Amino acid sequence: MKNNLFPIFLKTEHLRFLIVGGGNVGLEKVSTLIKQNPSINLKVVAKDFKQELKDVFLQYPSIQHETHAFESSDLEDVDLVIVATDNKETSREVKQKANAKGILVNAADQPDLCDFYLGSIVNKGHLKIAISTNGQSPVMAKRLREYFSDVIPDSIDENIESLNKIRNNHKGDFNQKLTDLNHLTSSFEGKKSTKKYKRLVTEITLIFFTLFLGYALSSIVSFSEAKDFVIHIPNVFYIMLAVGFFAQMVDGAVGLGYGVTCSTSMMLFGVNLPSISGSIHSAEMFSSGISGFSHYRFGNVNKKLLLALAIPGVIGAVSGSLLLVYLGNKYETITYGILASYTLIIGIRLIILAFRKKIERKKVKRVGFLGFAGGFLDAFGGGGWGPVVTSTLLAKGKKSNLVVGTVSLAEFFVTLSASLTFFAALGVSHGFIIAGLIIGGALAAPIAAKLAGKIPQKVAILAVAFLVITFSIRILFKIF
Q1: What is the model's pTM?
Q2: So what's the pLDDT on residue 74?
Q3: Which of 448, 429, 411, 77 is CA-nearest to residue 254?
Q4: 8-state DSSP, 172
């Protein structure tokens, strides 16, 4: 079937609307029009109005409403008509009389009586998207509206305003202006790669999970032991489930804290440092993959910064993992001392920055070194990627949701490389701990990613500062 619809956007302040019907559909249409323009010139007629619609009339006294059946006189001074009744005879009568006056009509759920359709609408500030399925499936249009409302970040309005200022101040001719604006918006083409990234993360995660599960089943747990384990799940599994959930909620929402929370808890069970770091990174690889994709989906990722952090971060993670496995005891105190001193200073700086009226944005220098240091210290100490990388970027005045999203996505590749290194050198141990951390973290990751764009920047910075200082003091007390 051909779709011959021609989409247009009407200036509602110049038009007069009539809605016929006072039931659920009438309420929906009135609410839709008011949402687009609370001062819209609107008249509603019906034999009776449901209570919710009466409440709307009280809230918006500018809406005219008359309690009677449709009459020809209702079409006076009207530009567009919406029929919101399931009575087909009434709908046909309205359409016939309206069309005779040159007025276009929309009849809800009656495509054959429609001169135009009301699409599902996505509102993001200045951005407005109308979706139509040519009258075939309003439900599909609704689902697409929900999808686009989710994936388009609220910050798009700021981008539109910035582009408008550039357009208005541009001194070149039309062609030059168009070329420059196309160049500035070319980054939106990258959105097409979301599915490829999701597939990559899924495949890597499934492969590693298969390796981990196969190794555990073949060399650690016999069939009878596995049966007993399922029947008598140890309490530590539930403890690690809660720890993994809480740690990922903190890490996904403010950009750090997963390794710190997990490593502290695992020390209570007497797990040695290489096994702690190996278990944390094995579990964190799953949750960071989910968290990273969630952030990418919500528009919280800066791709240029991602590459600058992830590549040196992976190199640092592999180096730190190998050093911990073979020389960890010798350099552990020195590394922890450097990490704790650095993050303590960063934490204090963040508190000062949070209470400034305006945080100055500064260019981040040596991002590659920052990624390497974060990856190295994270692998060697069982935690540190967030305290080092997130806190440094926030201290430079970067937007919290973009910092958290980008650092979380880079963390997936860092934890993947560290966990593979530990897996190759040490194998898998403490499977119940890893399982609890994986499940808890996976459950929390999408929720935390959603919170990252909602938490005020000042609150996020203070939360980061509190965790950084707590982490630093804990390590310094342990050393001295």
Answers
A1: 0.45
A2: 92
A3: 448
A4: S
